[in-house]
Design goal:
Blueprint (H helix, E strand, L loop, with lengths): L8 H7 L9 E2 L4 E2 L3 E6 L7 E6 L2 H5 L34 E7 L2 E7 L14 H12 L13 E5 L2 E17 L2 E4 L7 E30 L5 E8 L5 E4 L7 E3 L4 E9 L6 E11 L11 E11 L7 E3 L2 E6 L2 H6 L6 E3 L8 E11 L13 E10 L5 E13 L2 E10 L18 E2 H5 L3 E5 L3 E10 L3 E7 L4 E2 L6 E6 L18 E3 L7 E7 L4 E13 L4
Parallel strand pairs: 8-17, 9-22
Antiparallel strand pairs: 1-2, 3-4, 5-6, 7-10, 8-10, 10-14, 10-20, 11-13, 11-15, 12-14, 15-16, 18-19, 18-21, 21-22, 23-25, 23-32, 24-32, 25-26, 26-27, 27-31, 28-32, 29-30, 29-32
Length: 538
């Protein structure tokens, strides 16, 4: 039958308490410090004792002071019996002093030992006490080798977090609409843009706990390590040894793991790592069972107020309007959070003047402009954090063609029923030949002259002045030769459709001639003319 080392289970408990002062016993939480070596009774008559070193709390909580083995009485009543007196075996425990906390009270006392005889107090002289112990457990000689498992875990816990800064931008233009007239003070206008960048504060995140986990074997027996886990959810543990199938850790050896995990927030905490496996006692003594264990190590962690990494701590302000770059260089347009508090803004202002002369004045080409430009606040990795646009509308006054009808100066046509208010005149050859006749438009505008020559037929030469030009229509020059009436008051008005000569002349020609006309004494002249004037409806 195989023997089981029954006290191995207390060893993991003992290793977790190494940091408490030597004489402190705390039965309430099964923890003490300063270890006490005792002889533990087994169920073997051939090997009645094993020597173990345990936390004194185990003596109170796990009943070593009442534990019996098997065989003859060794210590029954007589505190110093001889080997021949054995009928029942008990644990042999040194005497020691203890102090522990129970609630709000400090409890101190002394344990008298069990079957200790006149041995020294363990606290006073552990070496002498151990020698006394061995002499009582093994009066015939040295104790046999006893396998002992002692895997310990130590870990570190460092922290880091990232601070991400937030910025916003706004842009406006004043006025939003510029109206540019063809002349006067209003033929120019100035627009002013405002770009406002606001620091919106920061948000901390990416709270990460990381560090090392060292697993070491302080016992005298191989230990198989099956897993190393970190207590924080989602922790990624990487070890320098392969734990697949278990890693055998020899006495005195150690290995290291690293871990890293992102936690929910910046709260402080305690992080515990656990190494699990088996003490390979059967490899030392086939009659012993392997003993499973879990060893833990903890480290406290906290996050400071200063981040390890910052995102968008400094930003650059850009603008598609060239006026921005002309006024602000890269230093001016770089903003850093260290210079701001939340809600604080930085303003950029620049202006541009527009002139009506920069735009066409006539026809379909006479249109204004819509200037849309964008400002951006650009963070790390050239990421645009925010943008804003402003639109300036430029409206321009155009020239419109004001059309009129022109005729040669002379007697007026008869005011007939069909044209009671007719002011049109007809021109005599005598006036044309005598230095020319004026051209009259809209009754009041002298727009040029008409002269003529004759060489078998009559040629009339026209000259338009003061910005007047022919309208861009068909048959814009109409002439009707006729004999001057002896009684002009009875001469009826010639309708435009009755003119015998109809010619289309380009509107770009301000001087032109009509040839092949009949030689006669009078000529009816009808010109479709006009001139470009500022749009009165603008």
């Amino acid at each position: 039958m195989r023997r089981t080392l029954t006290l191995i289970s207390v060893l993991a408990l003992m290793m977790s308490m190494l940091a408490i002062p030597a004489a402190m016993a705390t039965p309430d939480n099964h923890g003490t410090t300063g270890k006490v070596t005792l002889c533990h009774a087994t169920h073997s008559t051939s090997n009645p004792y094993v020597v173990i070193t345990i936390d004194p709390a185990a003596i109170f909580r796990q009943g070593h002071d009442g534990h019996h083995g098997a065989g003859q009485t060794f210590f029954d009543i007589d505190p110093t019996p001889g080997p021949g007196d054995r009928a029942e075996w008990d644990d042999i425990i040194p005497a020691f002093d203890y102090t522990y906390r129970e609630g709000n009270q400090t409890v101190s006392g002394s344990y008298p030992g069990m079957h200790w005889g006149d041995g020294p107090l363990w606290n006073d002289d552990p070496d002498a006490a151990r020698e006394h112990l061995l002499s009582r457990c093994f009066p015939e000689g040295e104790p046999p080798f006893v396998p002992e498992g002692n895997v310990s875990v130590e870990k570190t816990a460092s922290t880091r977090f990232t601070r991400t800064h937030d910025w916003s931008i706004d842009k406006s233009v004043d006025p939003e609409t510029l109206r540019l007239y063809l002349s006067g003070d209003d033929s120019t206008g100035t627009a002013t843009w405002d770009v406002d960048v606001t620091y919106e504060g920061f948000e901390d995140g990416g709270y990460t706990v990381y560090g090392t986990i060292e697993v070491s074997n302080g016992g005298n027996t191989d230990a198989r390590i099956d897993s190393v886990d970190d207590g924080l959810d989602g922790a990624d543990v990487e070890c320098e040894v392969d734990l697949a199938g278990g890693h055998v850790l020899e006495p005195g050896d150690a290995f290291e793991c690293t871990y890293e995990v992102e936690v929910a927030d910046g709260s402080a905490g305690t992080n515990t790592a656990t190494a699990s496996g088996d003490y390979l006692f059967s490899a030392v003594d086939p009659e012993l069972d392997d003993e499973p264990f879990e060893s833990t190590g903890s480290a406290n962690y906290s996050f400071g107020t200063d981040p390890d990494d910052e995102v968008n701590a400094c930003v650059t302000v850009t603008d598609t309007n060239a006026g921005f770059g002309l006024k602000y260089d890269s230093d001016d347009s770089t903003l850093c959070a260290v210079d701001f508090t939340e809600g604080m803004s930085e303003s950029f202002t620049y202006s541009e003047t527009f002139d009506r002369s920069d735009y066409p004045t006539r026809g379909d080409a006479c249109v204004g402009d819509e200037i849309i430009n964008e400002a951006e606040v650009v963070g790390d990795e050239e990421v645009v954090l925010d943008f804003a646009t402003a639109t300036l509308t430029i409206e321009v006054q155009c020239e419109v063609f004001a059309g009129e009808t022109a005729t040669g100066f002379g007697p007026e046509w008869r005011r007939t029923k069909g044209a009671p208010n007719n002011w049109f005149m007809y021109t005599t050859w005598a006036d044309i030949a005598d230095g020319g006749a004026d051209l009259i438009a809209g009754q009041h505008h002298n727009i040029g002259t008409v002269t003529g020559t004759r060489n078998g037929t009559t040629t009339l030469n026209f000259t338009l002045t003061d910005g007047w030009e022919l309208a861009g229509v068909t048959n814009n020059v109409k002439i009707h030769p006729f004999a001057c009436p002896s009684n002009p008051s009875t001469f009826k008005y010639v309708q435009p459709g009755q003119f015998s000569s109809k010619t289309t002349v380009s509107s770009t020609q301000t001087s032109f001639s009509v040839t092949g006309l009949t030689n006669t004494t009078c000529y009816g002249i009808h010109l479709d003319v006009g001139r470009w004037v500022p749009d009165p409806t603008f």
